[in-house]
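Morning. Coffee machine broken again, so started the prediction first thing and wrote up yesterday's gels while waiting. Chain of 102 residues, entered below exactly as on the submission form.
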Amino acid sequence: MKLNVYKNQHEIEKTHEVDTYDLMYGTVEDLLAVFDEVDDLTDNMKLFGVIQKNRTKLNDLLLDIFPDMTEDDLRKIKLKELIPLFMDLFNYVRETLGSEKN
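Came back before lunch.
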């Protein structure tokens, strides 16, 4: 996963990147609570509303996924880059839980 932090509208200041991220159970609980509010992952406006409503949880998650990221960095991330990242995370949780056998 990769997330750019911008110096201004056009210039990337730095990029945070991780190859993998191991989800903790508490993180899965938080994501599932957010996921319950999303009925269509392809509707960017609905997804934006869910992100806005749950921004504290999602900020904490971003800081956990990208350990070198700071809270100041969060303010300089473009929303259009966050939506695909969260969609990937939601889909990962869905696929992980769906692939488990009882």
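The mean pLDDT is 82. Going to sketch it on the whiteboard this afternoon.
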